[in-house]
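Pasting as-is:
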Amino acid sequence: MVIIERRLDKDRSGPVVHAQAYQSPAGDLEYRRPKSLGQFVRHQRRQSGVTPPLLPARLFAGIEAPLLAGLFSAAEKIFGEHPPCIIGGDAAPIARDLMAAGPGYVIAPSETDQSAFVEAARKFPGIHVRINLPAAMLLNPDRSALESAAADAVRLARSRENTSLGCGVVPYEARPEDVHALAQMIRNPREIL
């Protein structure tokens, strides 16, 4: 099964960069490049196979980050600002390379080590970081767990300028009063800190 394929044409930015990722039944990801560019690279999967990033950090830095940098640069020339880059999954291992590519806005996904992600972001103060709260926290009937998670997120957001808090998709089953309570906790963090 092909998971990801990227191609950069010779006439635009130099040599062809081409990689395909396949997931084996054992859960490994196998990256294949044409024989002229190298041999197979195997990487034991450390993140979810259903959410990005699908490339390990080393391959992300060598394949995807340069492509993103070109896209961000072109978009900045057209729109006058660096575009956002929205990614999910365990993004902390690629955070530095992702931000070095030049987005204007990134998300620290709830599935990653958000402290490590925010730490990497300190070297890029002009990039806005949104810390995503885990949407599942809205399904926990224990209000103290919600308060604790919100307090941790507020502390992390306060540790870096140009940072905000968000919540991806709110689960359908979430009680409206819990969604409103979370919003109130974040607006008035003195109540939970």
